[in-house]
Design a protein that fits this description.
This protein has helices at about 5-30, 40-45, 50-60, 75-80, 100-105, 175-190, 195-200, 210-220, 235-240, 270-280, 285-295, 330-340, and strands spanning about 35-40, 65-70, 90-95, 110, 135-145, 170, 205-210, 225-230, 245-250, 255-265, 295-300, 320. With about 350 residues, it is α/β, with parallel strands linked by helices. It has two domains: about 35-135 and about 260-310, D-Maltodextrin-Binding Protein, domain 2; about 140-255 and about 315-340, Periplasmic binding protein-like II (D-Maltodextrin-Binding Protein, domain 2). Strands 1, 2, 3, 4, 5, 6, 7, 8, 9, 10, 11 and 12 form a twelve-stranded mixed beta sheet that branches.
């Protein structure tokens, strides 16, 4: 065989190998073009932050986001625990600071110390092991309709007053992060006597919904003049309705700080893409989207907020809500018992 033919044959083989490797690389890349994000339902709704973030993330990184929203934050965590041996997602959004202990105990997340945390204040980093990273925050508060309630409550105890009979919408702590936050709030104030407080509070409760979305929808529909929500909730009405009708009550003893977190699900085959998503969530564009869609304060301290955030509650005192009994399930069982008789 002539040298020229040998050279051409070698060249053809090399081209074939190169093409095969390139094709395999493309196939692997194509397989990693979709990231499954577990989140609470309001995040992925058409008016939530999720759709806008997905569009921007795809444009910048070429990666599609698919949201799986089984319910509120507690429901999301329960789903991840059920799928622990066979994880179906890559990233989770919406496990807040009150769920940290249970999340860590479940061992469902990997650690990631994102370089984007450089713009997040230390006081918002509620998990120093970096399984859950903060992306926004606010304060739990009782929001009220100022056209129906001239004098709002000034404390948890004040909520039990007879004048507020059938006036309050709450969420179930078994399925809702605000619901769990409120339960822990009562424990932080009343200690082990919190079940007695709930007995006094029962006449004031109109209904208890499964999640925040249902509860707040009932509230704005006029079903009750008060609802458990966030100190930032009035921002929505100021920004999009030019209204200051709905307000957040600052309590004399303070309001609990809630920090929402995100993390990489253990077992993901898309680790690099998951890291990109975490970093993207902490970037300025996503943080502005979160502020005006989630209606929460952005974790990134560099973000400039619109004037509507002047209506947000900024309590002088933050209440720390951590489960002092060390057993959330036992606490929820006691809470359920309050309503069984």
């Amino acid at each position: 065989m002539k040298p020229t033919r040998i050279f051409l044959l070698i060249e053809a083989v090399l081209l074939l190998l190169t093409h095969s490797l390139f094709a395999a690389g493309n196939t692997e890349k194509e397989q990693s073009k979709t990231l499954i994000v577990y989140c609470y339902d309001s995040f992925s709704s058409e008016w939530g932050a999720g759709p806008q973030i997905a569009e921007s993330f795809l444009k910048e990184n070429g990666i599609n986001l698919i949201y799986n929203a089984p319910g509120d934050g507690v429901t999301v965590l329960n789903q991840l625990i059920l799928e622990k041996e066979n994880p179906m997602g890559d990233v989770v959004v919406g496990l807040d600071s009150s769920l940290l202990e249970r999340t860590l105990d479940a061992e469902i997340l990997d650690t990631y110390d994102s370089p984007a945390l450089k713009n997040v204040p230390d006081e918002l980093i509620f998990d120093t092991s970096y399984h859950l990273l903060p992306y926004d925050y606010g304060h739990f508060a009782i929001c009220y309709d100022s056209e129906k309630l001239e004098v709002p409550p000034v404390s948890l105890e004040d909520l039990t007053s007879e004048k507020y009979s059938d006036s309050l919408i709450l969420m179930d702590p078994r399925t809702s992060t605000p619901g769990l936050g409120f339960l822990l709030w009562t424990e932080a104030v009343y200690g082990d006597k919190w079940p007695d407080y709930w007995q006094r509070l029962k006449p004031s409760i109109l209904t208890i919904t499964q999640g925040w979305s249902q509860g707040y929808t009932l509230f704005t529909a006029g079903e009750a003049p008060m609802v458990l929500s966030y100190g930032t909730s009035p921002v929505y009405h100021a920004e999009y309705e030019d209204s200051k009708r709905y307000r957040a009550a600052g309590f004399s003893g303070g309001n609990p700080l809630q920090v929402e977190g995100m993390g990489i699900i253990k077992g993901t085959k898309n680790r690099r893409e998951a890291e990109l998503f975490i970093d993207f969530m902490l970037g300025e564009e996503s943080q502005k989207t979160l502020a005006l869609s989630n209606i929460m304060f952005p974790a990134n301290a560099e973000v400039v907020l619109p004037e509507s955030f002047n209506t947000a509650l900024r309590p002088e005192k933050n209440i720390t809500i951590t489960n002092t009994t060390g057993n959330i399930d036992a606490m929820i069982n006691r809470w359920t018992g309050v309503f069984s008789h």
